[in-house]
Structure formats: C-alpha cells, structure tokens
Amino acid sequence: MASSRLMMLEAARTVPDLRLTPPQFRILNYVFRHPGTSLSQVAVQLGVRLPTASVMLVKLAQENLVTRERDPASRRRMQLQLTEKGMRVMQAVRAGVFAGMDARLAQLDETARADLERAMPALELLFRD
Fold first, then answer.
1. Which of 9, 20, 28, 32 is the most exposed place for a label (fewest CB within 10 A)?
2. Count of domains in the chain?
C-alpha cells in the first residue's frame, strides 16, 4: 500500500490535470505490467465485481488512457491496453517514483544499501503478483 501511495502522489505531481482515483491508478499500473489483460483479471486484482471494474475502465477509456478491444481468440473477452497517452503517464509516474527512491537510497550509507540489496530477493518473493 505504501508503494501505491507513492505512485498516486507522483501521479498527482506529474499529471495534475488528470484526476485519478487510487483504484483507477491501480488499473493503469496493472495494465502497464500486464498488457492484454482482461476485465475479469483487473476485477480480481482490485478485489471488486466486474461491473465495478467496468465503470472504472469506462472513465479511463474516456480519458484516452486505456483501450478495450475484443480478443481475437474469444468474442466474449476484452483485451486492455494502455494508449500512447496512458503509456506516457505511466512512464512519467514510474520515472518520478524511481528518481525519488534513488534519492532516498543515496542518503543511506554503503552498509545499509548493501543490506537492502541482500534482502531484495526475499522481498521480491513476498510481494510478487
């Protein structure tokens, strides 16, 4: 949750005219990491019902951040992709978050950074999607 908060703050700073709710931003981030994902997969990731996820996606599509296209392999499945605008927003937000993290990590001494580096594989296992 702390990482989501960091990304939301960076999104508000990077794209102040784009008013996204935290769940909408989580959808964007999920589609960024999983291009071609389905509405069902997004709903599961957010822990909401399909109609709720659908309403959020309509707003993102209206903002020209996400496209919904039929899956060629299944008429009933919609594939989600970021638009060019959505990709630019996500790349800018992620760049800002990573720059902020780099600045914070630079404040640590070498021993503390080495400790974090050794812990990263275990943390990755714990927080993997």
1. 9
2. 1
Residue 30 sits in a domain whose CATH number is 1.10.10.10
**What is the C-alpha separation between 48 and 42, in angstroms, rounded?**
9
Residue 36 burial (CB count, 10 A): 12
Host domain of residue 93 = 2-97
Q: What angle do CA 7, 21, 8 make, to 5 degrees?
A: 10
Per DSSP, which regions of the chain are E strands? 37-38, 66-71, 74-82
Structure token digits, residue 85: 């605008």
CA distance 81 to 108: 38
Residue 98, CB-side half-sphere exposure with 13 Å CA sphere: 6
Length of the chain: 129
> How far apart are alpha carbons 108 and 9 in whole angstroms?
23
Residue 40 near residue 118 (C-beta atoms within 8 A):
no
- Give 7-61 pLDDT, tens digit per residue: 777 777 777 677 788 888 889 999 999 999 999 999 999 899 999 999 999 999 9
